[in-house]
């Protein structure tokens, strides 16, 4: 099976950051400009934020057909890119919740 993931060049990353911060374009429009799909743009923005790259929050501008959007985590109150309207807790907090649940069920901290 062919790997459909695309790699990002440093130049594409710089252009993504510029378009994200300096324009009012949403993820789909930026994707068209960079010949990437919207999901790839949103995932890259999320990875860049985790690496500490300063990107403006675009609440409401990141929505896609799959309802991806930047939301505030109900546990830690930090913004994250959720995968659907039902996803209200970031991955870090979800892992913490899972370890607490597992510990209570087994008596062993993972």
Structural write-up:
With 110 residues, the protein is mostly helical. It has one domain. A two-stranded antiparallel ribbon has the order 1-2. A hairpin with a 6-residue loop joins strand 1 and strand 2. Helix 2 packs across helix 3. The longest helix has 16 residues. About 5% of the residues have low confidence.
Structure in a nutshell:
By secondary structure, the protein is mainly alpha-helical.
Q: Count the strands?
A: 2
What is the overall number of helices? 4
Largest sheet: 2 strands, antiparallel
Strand content: 5-15%
Give the helices and strands, then pairings.
Layout: H1 10-22, H2 27-34, H3 38-50, E1 69-72, E2 79-82, H4 91-106
Antiparallel strand pairs: 1-2
Question: Key features?
Answer:
110 residues; mainly alpha; two-stranded antiparallel ribbon; 7% strand; elongated
């Amino acid at each position: 099976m062919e790997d459909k993931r695309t790699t990002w060049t440093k130049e594409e990353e710089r252009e993504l950051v510029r378009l994200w911060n300096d324009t009012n374009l949403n993820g789909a429009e930026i994707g068209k400009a960079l010949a990437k799909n919207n999901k790839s743009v949103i995932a890259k923005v999320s990875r860049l934020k985790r690496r500490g790259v300063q990107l403006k929050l675009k609440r409401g501008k990141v929505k896609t057909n799959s309802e991806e959007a930047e939301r505030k985590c109900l546990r830690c109150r930090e913004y994250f890119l959720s995968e659907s309207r039902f996803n209200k807790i970031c991955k870090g907090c979800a892992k913490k919740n899972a370890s607490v649940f597992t510990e209570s069920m087994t008596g062993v901290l993972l």
